Amino acid sequence: MGQVCLGRAGLEVRSLWLPGRNRYATKLALALGLTLLMLSTGIGFTPNAKAGEAATVSTDALYLREDMGLWAGISATMVWGDRVDVLSGPHAGNWYEVRYNGVDGYASGDFLSLDSGGGGQTASWSGGGATGTAWINTDFLNLRTDAGSWADVLTAGVQGEAVTTLGGEVGGYLPVEYQGQHGWMWAGYLAASASSAPAGPERWIDVDRSSGIVTLYLGNESQYSTWGAMGFDLSNDGYFATANGTFYVYSKNAGLTWTDWGKVYITNWVAFDPYRQNGFHSYSLDANGGDIPGGSNPTGGCIALPEWAADVIYQFARVGTRVEVHW
User: What is the pTM of this model?
Assistant: First the structure.
């Protein structure tokens, strides 16, 4: 079974195969690993924790790390509302030693709400409930379908971007409009004035056709890299090539989607080349979301990835994200 690509009445079958590419892709993907991270700094002093004290995760996603530093390995990902046992802290850099689901590690106190009342991010919005403008005051902030961490994520904004507030807080979330989409954002990471939310680095995606590597960037800092199957047409701008140039994400679809053209399913569609209907997406899948053999075959222009890698790109990209494709 060949690769598929959204576009031209749905999706297109892509059919070539290169021996050994599956093994290469798997080894490279595992070696590169997941490094995409929500970051924030500047939270105030956190009191010392008492032995046996508990805390609550107060951000959408928080890594449990093997040591005190962003360089340390990731043992688990905790989400809003998860409970942890505090073993010691705060240590240098406001790190806490905690236990989560029986696993010991370290987590940033900036995103923990201690039962004693210290730590964590509290709602800082002071602009009232009227319609107005607010600015994102953290590196990443999810726009959700409802006022809760359980709600689906529509997209995510970055530091310094403006949103329009549409009403008052509900459970710590504000109804907002962001880039034409309506949803909810956590008020604790929205600033009522632009001066308190400096512009963040640009979020963009680099596609290196010579190596097949896709890299996610914030400014000049690489956040994540993975290998992807690209077009069998090796010309610079052919219709079935992963054509060179500067593009911008214009459409996204996360769900398991059937294509009458390819007779397969894909997920995590991120479209960036409207002329060729090229974009990022998962390998070809069956009706249950399982991989179909030949998933890493060259495509007719799209960039096909393992489903977990396609999901990382989907979560990172937003409509308007720049995509640079080159040799």
Answer: 0.47
